[in-house]
Design a protein that fits this description.
12% strand, two-stranded antiparallel ribbon, 15 helices, globular, 2 domains, alpha/beta, Dehydroquinate synthase-like, alpha domain, Rossmann fold, six-stranded parallel sheet, homodimer
Amino acid sequence: MLNFDFYNPTNIIFGKGQVAQLSNLVPKGARILITYGGNSAKSSGTLKEVQDALKDYEVMLFGGIEPNPRFETLIKAVEVIKNNNLDFILAVGGGSVIDGTKFIAAAYYADGDPWGIVASFGQSVRKALPYGAILTLPATGSEMNNGGVITRASDNTKLPMMNRLLYPRFSILDPTKSYTLPTKQLANGVVDAYVHVIEQYLTYPVNAHVQDRFSEGILQTLIEIGPAVINNPKDYELQANLMWCATMALNGLIGAGVPHDWATHMLGHEITALHGLDHAQTLAIVLPSMLQHRKKRKRDKLLQYARRVWNINHEDEEKTIDEAIEKTRNFFTSLGVKTSLSEYQLGPEIIEPILTQLEEHHMTKLGEHNDVTPDVCRKILQLSM
Amino acid sequence: MLNFDFYNPTNIIFGKGQVAQLSNLVPKGARILITYGGNSAKSSGTLKEVQDALKDYEVMLFGGIEPNPRFETLIKAVEVIKNNNLDFILAVGGGSVIDGTKFIAAAYYADGDPWGIVASFGQSVRKALPYGAILTLPATGSEMNNGGVITRASDNTKLPMMNRLLYPRFSILDPTKSYTLPTKQLANGVVDAYVHVIEQYLTYPVNAHVQDRFSEGILQTLIEIGPAVINNPKDYELQANLMWCATMALNGLIGAGVPHDWATHMLGHEITALHGLDHAQTLAIVLPSMLQHRKKRKRDKLLQYARRVWNINHEDEEKTIDEAIEKTRNFFTSLGVKTSLSEYQLGPEIIEPILTQLEEHHMTKLGEHNDVTPDVCRKILQLSM
């Protein structure tokens, strides 16, 4: 097991009806900016429910945070906070709103150009406004971690940031809030959580038995409930398990003491930035070819994954691995998520610009061995056609 | 899944050589009381290592905290803190030292008789001194939770307390610190962690898939590494996995959103209080008969336990369950831990006084269904002979 530092102070309030707890969670007298995305926060009634629970507080609203939240939008929220002397933020939404809120919380205290926060991958943050979250979409894990991904529209740059000052004070996870999500978003959420686990699990063995078992447990659960929750979005137990899977997939726990990959994510970010595919759509395309191309380097863990997660155990190890990768691809397909670029009408001409972007963003030595170079990425993208 | 509130702000610093991080973790200028147990903290060199890492701080020592830490001892530490204007505590030891330190931290601010903290099961705590821990013995999980068990020697009372003000600020988990533990303590640690998981897992199903998988993962890991670590106490990977298992077994995570039992623990506490057996020794005696006697109530989870943890799956479900209970007993035996009272020369005459104690401590409706009455406990103790 590798040495590690694990710290996660976010208070999770999980279950039906927990929005009513808000006034016990937000500090008395706080002046709150509620951040949210599109109309669904309004039409679903969640925003109204939140405002009712906060009727004794001064509250302002800031909507319109996009999927892949934009720097250009978020800095406007910082101005609203400054101009109105607000001192607490409450994010109501999914990963994009919560990621964006992290940036707002940090940018409030930024010296100089707030893009510096993202350009430093979050390392320049020295102070942040306190914030909480009401999760409406299980997927990214942002509700219980200190990271986010911010996009600058002006130059198609999508970069991750992270800082231990950026944990939510609390997050309310009410699985009924996902009942009305579009099928596509639910399916994306399953894929996103699944690939988050894979990025921390499917590297090379370091005798981290508990972390491996936990990762396998989340993957097994996602396989069990994934297609079911899409077909029965109003089944509380299915939604509850999906929500808790997604949170546990990226709150630092399964990643403590083990090597990390994240090459699939970094490659996927560039596809989203240049071609607008949803984050999870890019992961479902890149992951199978990433595993196929790197199967020698990942051999031991791929075998463990095949045996423990998929119950595949042929005498022929090669066949065992190939079948596990195929099952992974089929799992994404069973959720209605496509697994090739051509299904999105994207051809080989997109490859070189993606590699250029990777180089521009210093993403030239990816993966757990730092050997996923642009050349390797080219082959993976060719396999992803 | 049941609704839940999960909060665990303890910073875990895990691995070889992490004691050197101390001066980054203890607030600058803190005046520290180091609490510890017997001579092993000294003879192992850990105390010296800690003092070296804290050479820029004002430090006092308080040793002699017993296994099953005593109220009578702990209140002396409170006096030392008050008389010397200390403001931070650093526990160096296993669960007893850390549990005792929690009480000291709370008792410093107690109005009136500090026993009230324990008598209220920790609910009367309003403020506590900050403290950190250096774990030397993997077992109780106290290093990453907010609970403790305190014994009052004057009337043989051993009671649990819990309060969210009582989390350690940080805990340093260096698996090499367990290299020199006596075999008995290592074996006790494995049993303790195992039964902690069972108390939160082996109740009745509530569709908490992730929690179940995590629990099963810890149990499987303990089964894999338990006998091995006892035979190879200087194997870093084995010790690291045992330490992380023990921490994860009782940090609130696997218990979030599921029913809890704890009847085995409460019965075991009385045996320790009256007859001095080690905590884990009592668990290894009580658990198998607890499961045997309550197997109808626990049927669904016992089957799941048998199938997933022990890979037992006979057509005859009764046989499947009995074999899983037998395997559990044999696992404890394989660690060198006895599983019956008679092996400790304790006979049926001990039963009634234990039941009287349970009644005195209001422990008359134990278990996940509150149906483990003193009468049920009598039968379980008879089965434990």
